[in-house]
Amino acid sequence: MSYDSFKVLKSSAVPLPIENVDTDQIIPARFLKATERKGFGDNLFRDWRFNQDNSIKNDFVLNNPTYSGSILVGGNNFGSGSSREHAAWAIYDYGFRCVVSSFFADIFKNNCLNIGVLPVEVSQSFLNHIFEAIYNDAKTELKIDLPKQLISICNSKYSEKFKINSYKKENMINGYDDIDYLCSMKSKIKEFESKSPL
Amino acid sequence: MAKTLFDKVWDSHVVKRIKNGPDVLFIDRHMIHEVTSPVAFLGLKNRRISVLYPKRTFATADHNTPTKNQHLPITDPESKNQLEALEKNANEHGISYWGLGHKKNGIVHVVGPEYGITQPGATIVCGDSHTSTHGAFGAIAFGIGTSEVEMVLATQCIMQPKPKKMRITIDGKLNNGVTPKDIALFIISKLTTSGATGYFVEYHGEVFRELSMEGRMTVCNLSIEMGARGGMIAPDSKTFEYIKDREFTPKGDDLLKTKKYWGTLFTDKGAKFDKEFFFKGSEIDPMITFGTNPGMGISITKSIPKAKDVDNGKLTYIKSLDYMGYKEGESMIGKPIDYVFIGSCTNGRIEDFRAFASIVSGRKRSKNVTAWLVPGSHKVMEAIKNEGLLEIFKDAEFELREPGCSACLAMNDDKIPPGKYAVSTSNRNFEGRQGPGARTLLASPLVAAAAAITGKITDPRSLI
Ligand code: SF4
After folding, report:
1. pLDDT tens, position by position, A10-52
2. Each residue's pLDDT tens digit, B43-82
3. Cα–Cα distance measured from residue B337 to residue B370, given in angstroms and rounded to the nearest whole number
4. Would an 8 Å CB–CB cutoff place A181 in contact with chain B?
5. Does A157 touch chain B (CB under 8 A)?
6. What is the rounded CA–CA span in Å between residue B23 and residue B351?
7. Looking at CB atoms within 10 Å, which of A46, B28, B137, B252 has the fewest?
């Protein structure tokens, strides 16, 4: 499925300064039973947002109206654990278009890129600046400029370059996906297959 | 130029290199299951394309299946729907499907090797992070997301930047009571859960050479828990002996052709790794985890580290201990437990049940413990019966369930209740992984057996 293109995003952000947030927290396994990609946002961080009797946990950031926006800022090693793309879907479906952290787990990062959520990896010190700025003023906006590969904390002196490989960058900017690309080289793949020893 | 095993397999599967981008990697074998594939098939439908090489994909139902009364209709409508979708998709596209009750059914990473789908030097992917298991055969095997499942179905390729290379060497002999699970938990405790992110690991040295194929699978399975894309072990005579004459391994002329390729599967002398670690077998003790990620493991006789001694993430560390109901500095030995789970693609193979039996044999289950013994596949279940282990379990008052992922991810009814402690041979102790509020302690089948008999954390060496 191709997705919305991503160029520049300016938004306030939701802070989640917890480390090693794993995909079982992002979306617990019992909510993986759908056969369509629908409604996963409702169960994003399910067990942190809701008590077991489905009442709301007021102390969790997504339940705090002070913080909002389409950028999620997480602690170090975000997205470890399972390969479930449902975690990225839940984040997208909830309304986030970008996740910022100082370190991402590999599969999660790939999954995000494949569905149009931009993972932005920043230095630990820059991440600390972001948290500080948001806790000082919840309306603080971040600006993510994908063509320039630059993330800035608006109205501050802080900005930082981030990395993304140029192929994925083009895809994100244009809203293309890998399958379109791979389908265009099918004859080459077929030739390769015919010579494969296994 | 001297090449690593990983380089050899990866490079021989690159269909195209994109400048400053990922490689287009050809995938030899693709395994699918009911949870991460349905949306991929929907994608194909929307694009009006069919599966390019259906014979290279294999489907099994495991994540969401009940482990009791598999002969009866599934009661949970959503699970039923997922299984039906998988069956329908597999049939529509000509993919072999080993559904519930099928004699080849089982956990995807257990049945792959059992039927010779897993082969040395192959590239293997599946929408499940523990696909790294298959690296035990010298394959490049890793977990992928649903978009990538769709890519492989459509084109038999995925697009991946080439990971960096890491080698972990462990020489020497293992101590008594130390199993492959302990080796893996030991490594993860040293490297942390992100220590190998961005890397593909080769395990090397005497300790791994001495392991059985089952043991190697356990170690490679847990590679993902230190963040690695996957882990692999160079194939040797044990590997070739194991795969010989399995249903999907090459035979006759094909075998001769593949053997030539297989003969090249080792790391050349002088090949460079981006990172190397060295440990000694004698450093490793039976391990147990005390926190909410697999890196939070210690030797079973040690006490829980103090927050002040933790390098980073002190707040997260304290949150984690709170969740577990533990305090820093406490000893693990003697802590009461409520549940024992033996199973999963980490420790659900026949050797794991033999190890469990070696301790429970002639003893009785603690009355305070509920135990779930879930074989990884029908083949494992058959072996448990044929080898007389079932009798041992019955005498010790344990009950055997039917194959599936079960309490490893608790998608079916096998959920550990909130607040309860479970010693599990599976792979993740994340908050709620085994059910909302469940508290998981990861350990080997021997440690699980000792806990099941005594009702508390016990050094298995006292019962061997
Ligand atoms: S047993 Fe657990 S880790 Fe293994 S395939 Fe099943 S859910 Fe995944």
Report:
1. 999 999 999 999 999 999 999 999 899 988 999 999 999 999 8
2. 999 999 999 999 999 999 999 999 999 999 899 999 999 9
3. 9
4. yes
5. no
6. 38
7. B252
Helices and strands, counts by H and E, chain B: 16, 18
- Is the Cβ–Cβ distance between A58 and A42 less than 8 Å? no
As a 3-state breakdown, chain B gives helix, strand, coil percent values, each rounded to 5, of 40, 20, 45
Q: Ligand 1 centroid vs B341 CA: distance in angstroms?
A: 13
- The verdict on a CB contact (< 8 Å) between A20 and B313 is yes
Mutation for A interface: B8, B35, B315, most A CBs within 10 A: B35
Quickly name the fold that domain B292-462 has. Answer: Aconitase; domain 3 (3.30.499)
Topology at the third CATH level for domain B164-235+267-283: Aconitase; Domain 2 (3.40.1060)
What ipTM describes this predicted complex? 0.92
Strand B287-289 and strand B297-299: the pairing is: antiparallel
Choosing from B64, B108, B128 the residue with most ligand 1 atoms within 8 A of its CB, the one to mutate for a pocket test is B128
| Contacts B410 to A, Cβ<8 Å | 29-30
CATH assignment of the domain containing A183: 3.20.19.10
pLDDT at A2 > cutoff 60: no
Q: Residue A134 belongs to what domain range?
A: 8-195
**Is B300 in contact with B422 (CB distance < 8 Å)?**
no
Query: How many separate domains does chain A show?
Result: 1
C-alpha B335/C-alpha B231 separation (Å) is 33
Closest chain B CA to residue A191: B15
